[in-house]
Amino acid sequence: GAKLQPITEVQAGKVERLDTGLAELNRVLGGGIVPGSVVLVGGDPGIGKSTLLLQVARNLARSGCKIVYVSGEESPSQVRIRAHRLGAVHQNMLVLASTEIEQVVEQIEQETPDLAIVDSIQTMVSCQLQSTPGSVGQVRECTGQLIQLAKTQNIPVLLVGHVTKGGSLAGPKVLEHAVDAVLYFEGDSSSNYRILRSVKNRFGSTNEIGVFDMGPEGLHEVSNPSQLFLAQRLEQVSGSVVV
């Protein structure tokens, strides 16, 4: 049913972005989550991607938004334990433990949430393919169905993608061209600090970074990274230069 039309006649209303409740993340995204967008959050296993998205779900649920959290790696009880530690237990947050993408898409379409989170895309499988979970074909097909859902239902979707041993994302980088934004969550195993950077963003700049401090109760925003990184600098040392 699509028809050609002059771009001058296309209606472009003001986009109301979702406030994640995390100023560092909002800045990296360009002001918040755009409705109908698909954002891929990549990083090493255990770096804090699930923690970050659970905190986003918590903040949005408290503001009255309905959230669907799809977990392909944990049971609902395990998600509840992590959510309790982060203070993310809320009636507006719906949990679905499933790896079948067709079932996931059907459930999201029925609930029509304000945000859907899929953790992780490597665990999702489509019954239309015979390949194993995490393969290029499965990752591409499952992401394609989620993108179609996001664009037709105007539901923003956040995807978790683990970085493999070879350093590639979602084994390998087959999703970056398809999604609207790609965020990398990075950090040193010997440090509690995490850096969130954007390598692709159709709705904002890729020059911003967000800095977080991982603590027992989740991620805390670091509003002054300069002070943080200079805190351990020795005083009165000849030749010391700050750039």
Distance between the terminal alpha carbons, to the nearest Å?
56 Å
Q: Identify low-pLDDT runs.
A: none
Total DSSP E strands: 9
Spatial order of the strands forming the largest sheet: 3-2-4-5-1-6-7-8-9
**Helix run count:** 6
Mean pLDDT: 89
Bin the strand percentage. Answer: 15-25%
Q: Calculate Rg over CA atoms.
A: 19 Å
Overall morphology: globular
What about the largest sheet? 9 strands, mixed
Name the helicity range: 25-40%
Key descriptive features of the protein:
6 helices, alpha/beta, globular, 9-stranded mixed beta sheet, 9 strands
Q: Could you characterize what this model shows?
A:
By secondary structure, this protein is of the alpha/beta class. It is built from 6 helices and 9 strands, in the order αβαβαβαβαβββββα.
Fold blueprint:
Elements: H1 23-29, E1 38-43, H2 49-62, E2 67-71, H3 76-86, E3 93-97, H4 101-111, E4 115-119, H5 136-153, E5 157-162, E6 181-187, E7 193-201, E8 209-215, E9 218-221, H6 225-230
Parallel strand pairs: 1-5, 1-6, 2-3, 2-4, 4-5
Antiparallel strand pairs: 6-7, 7-8, 8-9
Helix pairs in contact: 4-5
Quick recap:
By secondary structure, the protein is an alpha/beta fold.
